[in-house]
Design a protein that fits this description.
- The structure holds two protein chains of two kinds.
- By secondary structure, chain A is mostly helical.
- Chain A contains 14 helices and no strands.
- In chain A, helix 1 crosses helix 13, helix 3 crosses helix 10 and helix 10 packs across helix 14.
- Chain A is globular.
- In chain B, helix 2 packs across helix 13, helix 3 packs parallel to helix 7 and helix 12 packs antiparallel against helix 13.
- The two termini of chain B are 42 Å apart.
- Classes of the chains: A mainly alpha, B mainly alpha.
Chain lengths: 275, 286
């Protein structure tokens, strides 16, 4: 424990410095959002704290822009996408982990190769497919292309591989069907991996911008990132309102993050080790 | 027990295969086919052979965006491979409040890129907070035109990509660090090896798999930069921040030259594929 005081102080200093780097821009945004209309936000030197903190910018944003609708859309789309990812990936992972069947290798190779293809190449044909299926301006259209990923399938397959076969075999002797085994025996045992997948798909869909930008032209279906972008285009001169809208859009995911922080970071670590 | 499974495996696989097949694999073939046509969503599309690719080779805007993307890669990837190692080492210690610091460092990762872009556009303002900081500490004499000067804009956008990625890759390294067996350090401690020497001779070599993963992931991510550019600069000033994906987006959804954009998309795909191959090869060799 020699020199521990000094090294611990140095470590905290470094931590604080990095924390300032990552938090600073958020705090500046928050400060701007809380500044009143009478305060000059371009004054020099800039005032770090609002002179008279006020929530008026938030009310104005909610009054003039359908931010509550954007929030509803975001929650709905993210919820549907997470549910779809959990179900479809763990369904597909079961036979890949546990059954022998014709074409297994082919499916494996196709899934693996799908991970190499950037969405930015696919956006043009996927846009056309979505238009042909009548998915423009719909929740289904926002969710469907993200409803399952090969990453999720492999993550769940890895989890199933870790379960002893004996559990499954005794369930079979009791006469449970494959589907019942999947639901009653396997899924309860892979909850940590399900949490990881939920977190990954949630972050991905919640922040997604490019796909909704392409497939939506009706603001009634806008999710928060598109709503914030629209706000920025409408009020490009008034950063107070843009900042308020941005803060509004961060708060929900921040709340989720604070309450399930351990799943985010542990989940990302699990994904990193196995991915 | 191991009798024929019948239809069961296929039934389990149907939803996943339908989605990945319908929204990834089939569109992939479609994109390659479209790159050989003059597809534009208005007139009937015709087969034009390699015309789009020939046009790409002669298009200075394409070369500009490809150059920007490669520069992006060269600058951003080393930062994102190295800096998060130090961050991970910093937070890989049981100190009071360390979990809070980890969470704070992870904050940019969960924020949508559009919002991140807007935040930084505001931070980068000519009379903004960052310029105030630089001027008042005497680092610069005049305000820096971060996003409006073509010489700075691309680097300013890169800084945002790096800022966003730090926490993400930190967590990957953290997972790597925590999988290093403790007894190696204990043995080194007994031998009287200093902390710094332990880092160099134990930690970094055993972190190599994570380093390879981060190199692959960050280079693929750098190839696909779009949102930061869209929000902060719209590709400007003077196309200084136009990346390959931005070029594809504009060609497809602003100029409706879908066939041409698909050809640029195929180039993006081949580059990404090449990068993963190189990275995998390097990883295999180690």
């Amino acid at each position: 424990m020699k020199s521990s005081y000094l090294s611990i102080t140095a470590r905290y200093l470094a931590l604080a410095l990095v924390a300032l780097l990552t938090m600073g821009p958020f705090l500046w945004l928050l400060s701007t959002a809380l500044k009143s209309g009478s305060e000059n936000i371009f004054q020099y030197p800039p005032s770090l704290l609002p002179a008279q903190p006020t929530l008026e910018n938030f009310w104005r944003v909610i009054d003039t822009q359908p931010f509550l609708l954007y929030l509803k859309n975001s929650v709905l789309v993210a919820g549907l996408a997470v549910a779809a990812n959990l179900i479809f990936a763990s369904l597909a992972a079961y036979p890949l982990a546990r059954m022998e069947f014709r074409g297994k290798n082919l499916i494996f190779i196709l899934l693996l190769s799908s991970m190499m293809i950037p969405f930015q190449l696919l956006m043009i044909p996927v846009y056309n497919i979505a238009i042909n299926l009548g998915l423009q301006n719909s929740y289904l259209g926002l969710v469907l292309p993200h409803a399952c990923t090969a990453f999720g399938v492999f993550l769940m397959r890895q989890a199933f591989l870790g379960i002893p076969r004996a559990l499954e075999e005794s369930a079979m002797i009791e006469g449970l069907s494959r589907l019942q085994i999947w639901w009653h025996v396997l899924l309860p045992l892979v909850k940590p991996s399900l949490a990881t997948l939920a977190v990954f798909s949630f972050i991905g869909v919640w922040g997604d911008f490019l796909w909704p930008l392409i497939i939506l032209d009706d603001p009634g279906y806008y999710t928060l990132p598109l709503g914030v972008n629209r706000l920025a285009n409408t009020f490009s001169m008034d950063w107070r309102l843009v900042a308020a809208g941005a803060v509004f859009s961060i708060l929900p995911i921040l709340a989720v993050f604070v309450f399930s922080q351990k799943y985010f970071i542990e989940g990302a670590m699990r994904g990193a080790v196995k991915g | 027990m191991q009798k024929s499974e019948g239809l069961a495996p296929y039934l389990f696989l149907i939803p996943a295969c339908a989605i990945i097949g319908g929204f990834v694999l089939y569109p992939m073939l479609h994109a390659i086919a479209a790159s050989l046509t003059d597809y534009n969503m208005i007139t009937e599309s015709r087969f034009v052979g390699a015309d789009n690719y020939r046009k790409l080779i002669k298009d200075p805007f394409f070369w500009n965006s490809l150059g920007n993307t490669l520069l992006y890669l060269v600058v951003v990837v080393p930062f994102l491979v190295i800096a998060p190692i130090f961050l991970a080492l910093l937070v890989n210690k049981s100190l009071a409040g360390i979990k809070i610091f980890r969470a704070i460092f992870y904050l940019p990762v969960i924020t949508s890129l559009v919002v991140t872009g807007l935040i930084w556009k505001w931070v980068y303002e000519e009379q903004g907070i960052l310029n105030y900081f630089l001027l008042s500490t005497g680092i610069t004499d005049n305000p820096v035109a971060f996003l409006t000067d073509p010489a700075n804009a691309l680097f300013s956008v890169m800084a945002v990509t790096i800022w966003t990625g730090l926490g993400y890759y930190m967590v990957i390294y953290l997972a790597g660090l925590q999988s290093i067996p403790r007894h190696l350090y204990e043995a080194a401690e007994v031998e009287g090896v200093s902390k710094w020497q332990q880092t160099i001779h134990i930690t970094i070599p055993l972190l190599k798999p994570s380093i390879a993963i981060v190199a692959v992931m960050s280079s693929i991510a750098a190839m696909k930069v779009f949102e930061e550019v869209y929000v902060m600069t719209q590709g400007g000033p003077l196309d200084a921040t136009k990346t390959l994906v931005y070029f594809i987006y504009q060609s497809a959804f602003e100029e409706f030259e879908m066939g041409y954009a698909s050809a640029a998309g195929v180039v993006l795909f081949l580059l990404t594929l090449g990068l993963s191959m190189i990275n995998l090869f390097v990883l295999r060799k180690r």
